[in-house]
Design a protein that fits this description.
heterodimer; A: 262 residues; mainly alpha; 11 helices; B: 261 residues; 12 helices; 0% strand
Amino acid sequence: MYNKYFTAFHLSLSEQLTYRFNFIVGRVRNIIILLLLYYVWIELTRHTGQFASFTREELITYVFLVNILRSFIFGSQSRRIASEINDGTFSSYLTKPVNHFLHFYARELAERLVLTFTAIIEVVILSLILDLNLLVPNSISIISLFLVSLFLAHVLYYILSYCISLLAFWSREAMGPRFLFEWLLEFASGAYFPLNIVSPFFFTILQMLPFMYLIFSPAMIYLDQYSALEIIFTQILWIITSGLLAIYIWQKGLRRYTGEGI
Amino acid sequence: MKKYTRIWIQLLKNSFSSTLSNRIDSASYFFGKLIRFGFFWLLIISIFNFTETFAGYSTYQVLFFFLTFNLIDILGQIFFRGIYLFSSDVRKGNFDFTLTKPVPALFLTMSRLIDLLDIIFILPIVGLLVYAGIQLPVTITIGAILVYLFLVLLATVLSFTFHVIIAAATIWSFENENFIWLYREAMTLGRLPPDIFPVLLQYILTYGIPIIVMIAYPVNALFGLLSVGDMLFAGVITLLFIAVSLVLWKIALRSYSSASS
């Protein structure tokens, strides 16, 4: 039964490895962001060895950890869903015995695994070159809770991203909202900086959104700064809420789908 | 020049129609840009809640770096955005149509896509630059403002040369999506004062990929921190990049083999 999803996984994996040059240039872009953030925090902790509630080691660990987290959590495969709905290619899924959600998840997972593996190599090489002392949790329970939270963040991102792509059922203009979603996600998730350095007013707003549970919260569990169980509980709530929303949008959207090109 | 201005205005009108006919996309892209800008602004302000200076610069000085980066980035987006369509044109053979038109191919390649949203977005950037400029803790002279504007112009020319080099590379490799994004990502290193980088990286960003010349030089000129030698260097490196990029473009054009014919 799961062979068809494994095939989608395998095809996506091959696709990732086909355009190697583009892949490498894409990773170089990531390293540029990583270096910029690294030097920002080095500068800010130059005199006192700490900034806000973080020590230099915690901030540097945060920056490098985020490089791995975003590779495992953020994906681009669900962008295809919107364009396939708009150009009518989506119709072929309706005639196949596949679950659309799982099919794209298999594709997304292949991309995520390749990028995560590459991100880990980048972090190891850069930490050796820059002679970094990255922190590792000294408790098995923290590592276990971090991994649980990481997996939940991965699932939550996919569901949110899937919902945004399904907007293509209502409009041919789904790429704009996706652009908006991606930039909101980049910042509101904590992919650029630890969110608790912003003023309490903005932090309270960010806490009401699901995005901070994608990057910032798992990273805080890793650094043993926040209550892991509370974060995991909130992540599960957001997964259930966004999952129900995805089902609703899917059912409503299918009724509107006109199958362009048929 | 008149002809080019007329063509550019016509392309701008096309962009206006496209923006109005794709209202959801346009509004989303605009808000996306606002969010990107707003969060970086928030980051800078948040940093200064915990420190007096950043690499020796005050809040408004750092904001001035950030705003100048945005200004130069958006100018590049307004005038050279056509590069985003170029790899598709080369792959599909549509570049043939550009070559047959009685307008230089480079001009049409760069300007065939204009984003009206960037033109709208530049207005608040200029407003904020004036505001941040008034708040700066240094005295700004008219001469310094003129040098700043001249160096911003040079930065736009340098941005053009990067786009030309990417276009040439596209003809050779058939793909440029990541080249252009690599350039734009490298540009983001100019968002903040370059003093935070180690000396070696500063050298690379001055002499190799002259992002420091493009962003930090105008800002430092305004702050009265740029020497005459540095200003001359900015002019020389711009001329060098113009020459190199145009030679590369000519070589690339010679090796272009139409995909459709």
